[in-house]
Specification:
Keywords: Signal. One of its GO terms (cellular component) is periplasmic space. Belongs to the bacterial solute-binding protein SsuA/TauA family. By secondary structure, this protein is an alpha/beta fold. The protein has 13 helices and 10 strands. The protein has 2 domains: about 5-110 and about 205-330, 3-Layer(aba) Sandwich (D-Maltodextrin-Binding Protein, domain 2), CATH 3.40.190; about 110-200, Periplasmic binding protein-like II (D-Maltodextrin-Binding Protein, domain 2, 3-Layer(aba) Sandwich). Helices cover about 45% and strands about 15% of the residues. Strand 1, helix 2 (about 45-55) and strand 2 form a beta-alpha-beta unit. Helix 2 crosses helix 9 (about 220-240), helix 6 runs parallel beside helix 7 (about 180-190) and helix 9 packs across helix 13.
Length: about 325
């Protein structure tokens, strides 16, 4: 079994174990249960570092790895977690529980990839099966939007959590068309040069990952939320200024030990590319991010209503961002 396969199996087992034990009592003051709806990889170092720094400042964070954005969102709705990671616009619009985004972590940088033996361009995917991260995820939104843009109708859309898992499936041939992040696009190019084609996408500035919680949690735990948002903002700024510091963070906090020391070069290159693209959010998002999200997720069909008619306050609580920017300054 490959390292990646072992990691996927362990993460899935962990998710199952957590899922079976999620009738947890509500968190006490100073506690924060964060539902991570993905398999942590090198693209998670910024967020994982911010969490470790929040712990250093006294927030008792419990990280719950669920490897599916749907499960993370459901954990918030069911009071089985306090904070989720994702971009749950569909859920926010349709859930009876008032959930709000309160910080943007990163903007979309996904790459639709096809096996060149079967497909060459977008029109070749008409009626064909594809795989994305999860229902309601940014990966799904990108695929749906590009299908609409190119006038095609996708076949079955499968949900396969973990960009590395999808990369591995592409290499093995069990997937012929999927979508991966920048790190796994680079890996595909290295591992199988010429085998895959990256299909073009429009410039995107919508939310890839953000923090969200119920309105009540944000109101009743403002001090802890402020610490997490501040550390997320500081970490994003430091990595953007000096991408190689992501490796230092990984080693200092012993993050992703299963990847081994040979991943440091890949981590450095990934964050150098992310910094150049400006995909790490320096000021937390807020109203400007919401406007981009409304335009993108509406076009992708994941939220209803004309973007201009949607209200920021129905989807976002920007109070923690405003307090963090007032304290740290704006970048």
């Amino acid at each position: 079994m490959t390292k990646l396969s072992r990691r996927a199996v362990l993460a899935t087992a962990l998710a199952a174990a957590i899922g079976s034990a999620m009738s947890i009592e509500a968190a006490s003051a100073g506690d924060m249960r964060i539902a991570f709806g993905d398999l942590p990889g090198i693209e998670s170092i910024q967020t994982l570092t911010a969490i470790e720094r929040a712990k250093e400042r006294g927030v008792n964070v419990e990280l719950i790895v669920l490897n599916d954005e749907d499960l993370a969102a459901q954990a918030i709705v069911g009071n089985q977690a306090d904070v989720g990671i994702g971009a749950p616009y569909t859920l926010i619009q349709k859930a009876g529980v008032p959930i709000r985004l309160f910080a943007q972590i990163s903007t979309l940088r996904f790459f639709p990839v096809v096996n060149s033996e079967f497909y060459k361009e977008w029109k070749d995917l008409d009626g064909q099966d594809v795989a994305v991260q999860a229902r309601g995820s940014g990966t799904e939104a990108v695929m749906l939007l590009m299908a609409k843009t190119h006038g095609i109708k996708l076949g079955t859309v499968s949900y396969v959590p973990g960009s590395e898992v999808r990369r591995n499936a592409l290499i093995q041939g069990t997937l012929k068309a999927s979508i991966v992040d920048a790190a796994n696009r680079r890996a595909l190019e290295t591992e199988a040069p010429g085998k895959f084609i990256v299909l073009p996408v429009d410039d995107l500035s919508a939310t890839d990952e953000g923090l969200f919680a119920t309105a009540d949690y944000l109101k009743n735990n403002a001090a802890d939320v402020d610490i997490l948002v501040e550390e997320l903002m500081k970490t994003g700024r430091e990595i953007t200024e000096t991408p190689a510091v992501a490796v230092e963070f990984r080693n200092k906090y012993k993050l992703l030990p299963d990847l081994g020391a040979d991943a440091d070069t890949e981590i450095s290159e990934y964050y150098k590319e992310s910094a150049t693209a400006g995909s790490l959010v320096l000021n937390g998002g807020g109203a400007e991010a919401a406007a981009d999200d409304f335009a993108f997720f509406s076009l992708a069909g994941q939220i209803e209503g004309e973007p201009a008619s949607l209200k920021v306050e129905d989807f976002w609580d920007v109070a923690a961002i405003d307090r963090a920017v007032a304290k740290l300054g704006k970048k």
